[in-house]
Write a structure and sequence with these properties.
The protein has 228 residues and is α/β, with parallel strands linked by helices. It is built from 10 helices and 9 strands. It has one domain: 3-Layer(aba) Sandwich (Rossmann fold), CATH 3.40.50. The longest helix is centred in the N-terminal third of the chain and has 20 residues. It is globular and about 50 Å long. Keywords: ATP-binding, Kinase, Nucleotide-binding, Transferase. This is guanylate kinase. One of its GO terms (molecular function) is ATP binding. Belongs to the guanylate kinase family.
């Protein structure tokens, strides 16, 4: 105990937050599902289908960001929109499991975002980049999250999808493709993810994802049934 008291405040916050997640996960058997994959891989569509197929089982952990809200986005629903100073202060205080910097903006997942979902009896769903996956693993959450990587069939196909969206300029597309190459390289490493799904056909990719997460869904339904 004395050693813990001498640790920096940020580390103490990480330890206590990680223990809270472990305690709640242990009592319910619910594990976070950490998704990763490049923009344009179809990851968001697959997650949406998963939530529609199993209503009430999954819930997004709302991340923080320093970027401005886009049209139609709501504070607390799509992101928690904060200032750079606010986010850096919370990162220094150990309130985040992971955080990253992309295209001039910060993004991150707080411990509270995960504990709030587990406490509701639902499965936390997170969408993070490769660095976020590494940060989650470094946090050593128990039981460990399930890691899912979604990828496009090829880089050529991915670029076509990104350009078809007409939301990014050439420079941002270049950055996204470079990020995708790094992400794919990490996904190729043994043990990086629990499953890697190539989204060449949406229906087939969803069937693979749904089958892989069947046990997680069963646990969440059992928790919901016992609470009713």
């Amino acid at each position: 105990i004395c050693k813990l008291q001498r640790l920096p405040i940020s580390f103490v916050g990480i330890v206590s937050s990680s223990r809270r997640i472990a305690a709640m996960s242990a009592s319910t058997g619910i594990r976070p599902i950490v998704f990763s994959g490049p923009s344009g891989s179809g990851k968001s569509t697959l997650i949406q289908h998963l939530m529609e197929r199993h209503p009430g089982c999954f819930r997004f952990c709302v991340s923080h960001t320093t970027r401005q809200p886009r049209a139609g986005e709501k504070h607390g629903q799509h992101y928690w929109y904060v200032t750079e100073a606010e986010m850096l202060a919370d990162i220094d205080a150990g309130k985040f499991i992971e955080s990253t910097h992309f295209a001039g903006n910060r993004y991150g997942t707080s411990y509270k975002a995960v504990t709030d979902v587990i406490n509701s009896g639902q499965i936390p769903v997170l969408d993070v980049d490769v660095q976020g996956v590494k940060s989650f693993k470094a946090a050593k959450l128990q039981p460990p999250p399930t890691y899912v990587y979604i990828k496009a069939p090829s880089m050529t196909d991915l670029e076509q999808r990104l350009r078809a969206r007409c939301t990014d300029d050439d420079e941002k597309i270049r950055l996204r493709l470079a990020e995708a190459e790094a992400g794919n390289a990490y996904a190729d490493q043994a043990g990086a993810y629990d499953v890697v799904i190539v989204n060449d056909n949406l229906d087939a990719a969803f069937a693979e994802l749904d089958k892989f997460l069947a046990d997680d869904v069963a646990r969440a339904l059992a928790v919901k049934a016992s609470a009713s």
